[in-house]
Fold:
Amino acid sequence: MGIELRRGAPDDSVKCGRVCFDAFRSLAERHGFPPDFPSPEIASGLLSMLLQHPGFYAVVALGDGEIVGSNFMDERSEIVGIGPISVDPTTQKRGVGRVLMEHVLDRAAERHAPGVRLVQAGYNNQSLCLYTKLGFRAREPLSLMSGLPPKVGVAGYEVRQAGEGDFVTCNQLCRKLHGHDRAGELTDAIQGKTATVVERLGRVTGYATSIGFLAHAIGETNEDLMALINAAPSITGPGILVPSRNHALFSWCLENRLNLVFQMTLMSIGLYSEPWGAYLPSVLY
Structure:
C-alpha cells in the first residue's frame, strides 16, 4: 500500500475518529484493558476539537485514497506534545505509524522545538519500541487512576477558579518545577473556566488546567495536588496520570478508592529536567 500524507482538516473528524476508536479499542481488547474511547462519536468529538484548534498540528495518512491513520501535535507551548496517533487495525504493521511519527518529529525540528514529549500505554510493547528507536527516552512510569474525587479535604489549602491575574504566577510555578511553562494550555484552561489554583497562607502554590486525562496539574507539595483533586467536580476522561514513583500521592489515591487502570510511560526527546515538586501530567506530557 502506498502511503500519502496531507494536513488534517475539520472535515476529517468523523473518519479519523472512527479509525482512532477502532485502533485504540483493538489494542486495549487484545491486552484485556478498557478502551480509551467509549464510542466512535466521542473519539470524533475530541479529534474535531483538535482539527479546529489553531494550536494543534494534524496530519492524516491516506492509503488508496482513504484515511488509514492520523497524528496530532500540540504546539501551544515551547515543549510540544504528540498524540493521539492511531492507525487503522487492518493496515497496522505496514509502517504507517512510523511515517506519521517521523513527519511530526520533522515538523518539531523545523520549528526548533527544544523538547518533544508523549505518553504511551505501558502494555503496548510495539509503540514503546518504535518510539525508542525514533529517539525517545522513557522518563517516568505513570499510573492511570480512575474514580471520583475523594472530597476528604486538606486542612489549610484553599482551591478556587483561576483567573487572568493568576497567569504569571502559574507559569512561574511550572518553570520552577519543569524548567519550562505550558502557557498555551493554561491560557485555554483559564478562558474555558476549567483551571483552578490552590492557595496556602494566601499564596498560590499550585494549579490545574482541570483534573483528568487531557489536563495537567502542578504543586509545590503533594498536599497541593491532593487539594486540587479533592476540589474537582469530577475526574474527566479515563482518569488522572499519577507518577508511580511518587509513593505518597500514589498511595493516597489508593487509600481514597481511586483504582489503578494500567501503567503508562512518559517519554521525551530533547529538553527534559527532573521535576522539582509534585505534578500530574496530561496524556500528552
User: Anything to note?
Assistant: The first helix runs from residue 13 to 31. The two ends are 33 Å apart (CA to CA). Residues 146-280 form a domain with the Aminopeptidase fold (CATH 3.40.630.30).
